[in-house]
Amino acid sequence: MGTNFARDCEPNLVLTRTADGSRGKGGDKNLRSLKRAHEKAANLLQLFTFPDIPEGFEGTRGLLKEAVMKKYSLIGVICIFMALLLLTLTAPFPSHSQEVIKLKVANFFPPVHKCSILAEEWCKEIEKRTNGRLKLTYLAGGTLVPANQSYEGAVRGIADISLSSQQWMAGRFPLTEALYLPLGVRSGYQGTIMINEWYKKFKPKEYDDVKVLYLNCAPPGVFMTLKPFPSINDLKGLKIRAAGDTAKIVTAMGAIAVSVPMGDIYEGLQRGVVEGVIFPAEALKGWRFGDLIRGLQDNDGLGYPSAQCLVMNKGKWNSLPADIQKTIEKIDEEYIEKQGKLWDETTKEGVEFGISKGMKVFKISPEEVAITREKMKPVLADYVKRMKDMGLPGEESLKFLQDFIKSHS
Predict the structure, then answer these.
(1) 51 shares a domain with 177
(2) Mean pLDDT of 333-354
(3) Spatial separation of the C-alpha atoms in residues 314 and 303, rounded to whole Å
(4) For a Cys staple, 244 with which of 167, 230, 312, 345, CB 3.0–4.6 Å?
(5) SS3 of 302, please?
(6) Residues contacting 113, CB < 8 A, separation 6+
């Protein structure tokens, strides 16, 4: 049933009538008062039917209407109106600085790889701690930019944030080449902590075209072959997939370095294009190499890390509010630890997976480890010489890394 304000408000006014029903003394005055009350109530309701009432205050508008419907006094209605007005004025409306900023994040790891899952977790953590002011779209498996273009993709803004491996861009990261040398690194955690400390000390200009969020080092690379080979002498003449600076290690060991894109390694092994790889053992499961690999050499004379970098388009970084930048940097520090620990977890899982498929692990003898180290000395010396020729602190860089390994073993 509809509401008749003249009728519903009338009991609150005194209208005197004569016995025959006509208005008595003061009746006209009271009628005019009634009409004014009616108009005020109607006007108040009109105020609270506007479409732009702030989100979350619809219930308050309902209370006002209910108040009028239930014949509350005009003073009560006004009180509710004033309360709503006060809440409206103090409500936190989104400002320009709180607009949602959307970013695209590229990752070359397959979506099911644990490193990819961790990267997606990183994205969600940033969204959470920025209270939704950042919205990150995560694209794994090289779907936004191919792996070998992942760094340039961030530079050009194809991806706002991108994970890349520096070894895929020959000559672009000269000082960083130390992070692919046979240093004797024993774990992914050790290498990941090391590379971030190294970056803080040297701040190489080769990264000036991006914002470095954080770096990591995959676990030490090892020789893994289609056939089981127990000795380093068995590597001679084998076609081994290698990328960038690791090709020098392969050559020094007497094998033949073959360049194959990351996403094509599995097929290359299947077809015999390569007879093995020099790569972190986590790939046995993470990239399914364990389906095909039947021999792994655990050689303490190598221990080369594999550097990776999570970088952001510099212009996009500079456009972020300062508080968001600080939040991201804090999260990055936490994920350096998480990534390092995850690498060692995935290495263990990778070796177990390979063994379950029939792979044999060969611990290289101390005698052959010593031979390996001798073979690696020219590789280390070449790095120092080339850096010196380029005017870069190669000797200092190498010494820093070697000292770090000694003090963190």
Answers:
(1) no
(2) 97
(3) 33
(4) 167
(5) coil
(6) 140, 286, 287
Identify the DSSP state of 100. P
Of 57-61, 241-245, 272-276, the one with minimum mean pLDDT is 57-61
For 20-32, how does the pLDDT look when each residue is reduced to its tens digit (9 = 90+)?
444 444 445 544 5
Domain containing 33: what range?
Answer: 5-90
Same structural domain for residues 124 and 83?
no
Distance CA 291, CA 371 (A): 31
Label the pairing between strands 101-106 and 306-313.
unpaired
For residues 322-341, one letter each, b for 16 or more C-beta atoms within 10 angstroms of the residue's C-beta and e for the rest, the string is: eebeebbeebbeebbeebbe
pLDDT of residue 75: 54
- CB 218 within 8 Å of CB 343: yes
CATH code for the domain in which residue 200 is found: 3.40.190.170
* Cβ atoms of residues 269 and 293 within 8 Å: yes
Distance (Å, whole) CA 389 – CA 383: 10
Q: Using an 8 Å Cβ cutoff, are 60 and 31 in contact? A: no
Distance CA 216, CA 152 (A): 18
| Dist CA 5 CA 196 (whole Å) | 75
Q: How far is CA 348 from CA 116, 294, 356, in A?
A: 17, 16, 12
